[in-house]
Design brief:
Elements: H1 3-15, H2 20-46, E1 73-77, H3 84-96, E2 101-106, H4 111-117, E3 122-125, E4 143-147, H5 156-168, E5 173-175, H6 186-197, E6 202-204, H7 208-218, H8 225-236, E7 239-242, E8 247-250, E9 255-258, H9 270-283, H10 288-310, H11 317-322, H12 324-332
Parallel strand pairs: 1-2, 1-4, 2-3, 4-5, 5-6, 6-7
Antiparallel strand pairs: 7-8, 8-9
Length: 333
C-alpha cells in the first residue's frame, strides 16, 4: 500500500467526522508503513543475488601432487571441560571438508575425548596462550584458525584465549560459540580492526541470539537479519554468517541469503560442524566470502540429505558430518 493510500484514508476519516484518536491511529499506521517500506528498500539495496549452481567450481579439489600441508592446516582452539564434544564435532567436520591437517587445542580434561574422536587429529592441551605459537600462512602451506566452539562464555579464560588468537593469528580466523561473547569488549574489537588493517580476514558465525547480544553493543536493531548482519560486519570488520532458517552472509558491503536451511539442523552441535567446515575451507586458501557461501551450502545440503534418509526429527550433528561427503558429491554433479 502506498503512502498516497494512507493519506487519502486519513482524509476521508476527517471528512466523515471521525474522532482524533482514529486520526492519530491512522498517522501511526502511515508512519509504520513508511518505516517498513524504508526497511524493505534498504534490504533490497543490500541483498546481492547469487547463482548457487556456481559453487561446484569453488570446491577445493586436491592436485595430484599435493600433500597434507598444501591442503591446508586448521588450528582449532575449541572445547572445554564442560563442552568437549564441540571440539570433536568441529574437528571431524574440518577433515570431511578437506583440511589436510587439523590440530586441536583444547582444555586438558577434553584432550583424551578429542583424541578418541579422531585418530588422525593432532591434539594438545591449551594454556592461556592457546595458539600464540601458531605458524603463519606461507605459500603452498595455507593456515587458518577457528576459535570458540565449546568455550564456556562465563569462564574468563575464554576471553583471554580468543584475544590471544586474534592477536597472534597471521592468517584467516573464525570465531564461533562461546568465543563470540567477548567481541563486544573493546580489546577484542580493537584486535579485529587491527587484523583487518593488516589484511587478515575474520569470520564470525553467530546464531540469532548471539548476534542480538553483539548488536546491542552497537545499537543495531534486530528487526531485519539482513541489516543486522550487514551492520555487524561493518562494526566488527568481519564477514558475518548470521545463522537461522535462512542464513545471511555479509562482508560489510553486500549481503547474500543462503535459503536452503532445514529444521533438521536445529540441533545442538550443528553450529560446531559449520564452524569446522568453514574453518577448513579458509585453511585451504579459499577467500572468506566464498568459504562462507560454500560452507553454509554444504552444511545445508548435508542436513537435507541426512533428513531424507533419517527424517528431520532424528538428524543429529554427527549425522550432518556423515553426510558431508554426499553433499560434496551432489554439488559436483
Amino acid at each position: 500500500m502506498t503512502d498516497d493510500c494512507f493519506e487519502s484514508t486519513v482524509g476521508s476519516c476527517v471528512g466523515a467526522g471521525v474522532g482524533a484518536g482514529a486520526i492519530d491511529a491512522g498517522v501511526v499506521d502511515a508512519e509504520a508503513a513508511a518505516a517498513a517500506k524504508a526497511l524493505l528498500e534498504r534490504e533490497n539495496n543490500l541483498l546481492l543475488s547469487f547463482e548457487w549452481d556456481s559453487l561446484a567450481g569453488w570446491l577445493p579439489n586436491p592436485a595430484t601432487d599435493t600433500n597434507k600441508y598444501a591442503r591446508g592446516k586448521l588450528v582449532l582452539c575449541a572445547g572445554s571441560a564442560r563442552y568437549p564434544g564441540a571440539a570433536c564435532l568441529a574437528a571431524i567436520a574440518s577433515q570431511r571438508a578437506g583440511a589436510g591437517y587439523t590440530e586441536v587445542v583444547t582444555e586438558a580434561p577434553a584432550v583424551p575425548i578429542v583424541q578418541a574422536a579422531g585418530y588422525s587429529l593432532v591434539v594438545r592441551a591449551a594454556d592461556d596462550r592457546c595458539a600464540s605459537d601458531m605458524p603463519a600462512a606461507q605459500e603452498n602451506r595455507p593456515v587458518a584458525v577457528a576459535v570458540g566452539c565449546g568455550f564456556d562464555a562465563a569462564d574468563p579464560a575464554s576471553e583471554r584465549r580468543v584475544c590471544t588468537v586474534l592477536r597472534a593469528a597471521q592468517c584467516p580466523a573464525l570465531v564461533d560459540g562461546g568465543g563470540l561473547a567477548c567481541l563486544s569488549r573493546l580489546e577484542a574489537r580493537m584486535l579485529l580492526e587491527d587484523r583487518a588493517s593488516k589484511g587478515f580476514a575474520t569470520v564470525i558465525t553467530p546464531h540469532a541470539g548471539e548476534a542480538a547480544r553483539l548488536a546491542r553493543t552497537f545499537g543495531i536493531g534486530t528487526e531485519s537479519p539482513i541489516i543486522e548482519a550487514h551492520e555487524l560486519a561493518r562494526q566488527l570488520h568481519a564477514v558475518v554468517v548470521l545463522k537461522g532458517p535462512n542464513t545471511y552472509i555479509a562482508d560489510g558491503e553486500d549481503v547474500i541469503e543462503m535459503p536452503f536451511g532445514t529444521p533438521a539442523l536445529a540441533k545442538a552441535g550443528t553450529g560446531d560442524v559449520l564452524a569446522g567446515v568453514i574453518g577448513a575451507l579458509l585453511a585451504q586458501g579459499i577467500a572468506p566470502m566464498r568459504a562462507c557461501l560454500l560452507g553454509t551450502a554444504l552444511h545445508a545440503r548435508a542436513g537435507i540429505a541426512a533428513a531424507a534418509d533419517l527424517s528431520d526429527i532424528a538428524v543429529t550433528a554427527e549425522d550432518v558430518i556423515d553426510y558431508l561427503p554426499q553433499a560434496i558429491l551432489d554439488m559436483k554433479e
